[in-house]
Amino acid sequence: MTNDLFQSNEERITLYAIAAMRVEREPDLLPFRETILHEEWTEADEHWTWVIDAPVEEIVAWAATIGKEGKELGNPTVGCSGNDEGAV
After folding, report:
1. pTM: predicted TM-score of the whole model, two decimal places
2. Cα 36–38–39 angle (5° rounding)?
3. What's residue 69's pLDDT?
4. What is the CA 45 to chain-centroid distance, rounded?
């Protein structure tokens, strides 16, 4: 039997893979791939679940906002704390 930490990591990887497949299959999400699939989200499991379930329009609006904030600050990963408005 595996420990709880290992099971949690397996679940997160699975959620990430499903989220990545959705981004790859949705043409409107592809321009925001790097922002959406940033691997260092503080609340990763919740973020991946949101990416899997949220309407495309909601994800695009959120990613566009995060991308603008990053460009204005010269840092494309700004806002990747998972605590941004619209992110879960």
Report:
1. 0.64
2. 135
3. 61
4. 9
Q: Measured in Å, how far apart are the chain's first and last C-alpha atoms?
A: 31
Tokens representing 62? 């959120």
Q: What is the pLDDT of residues 8-49, one digit of tens each?
A: 666 556 899 999 999 999 999 999 999 999 877 778 889 999
Average pLDDT, the chain: 75
* 4-25 helix and 44-53 helix, angle to the nearest 10 degrees: 30
Q: Report DSSP state, residue 86.
A: T
Q: How far apart are CA 20 and CA 51, in angstroms?
A: 9
What DSSP assignment string belongs to 41-81? -TTHHHHHHHHHHS-HHHHHHHHHHHHHHHHHTT-TTTTTT
pLDDT value at 88 more than 50: no
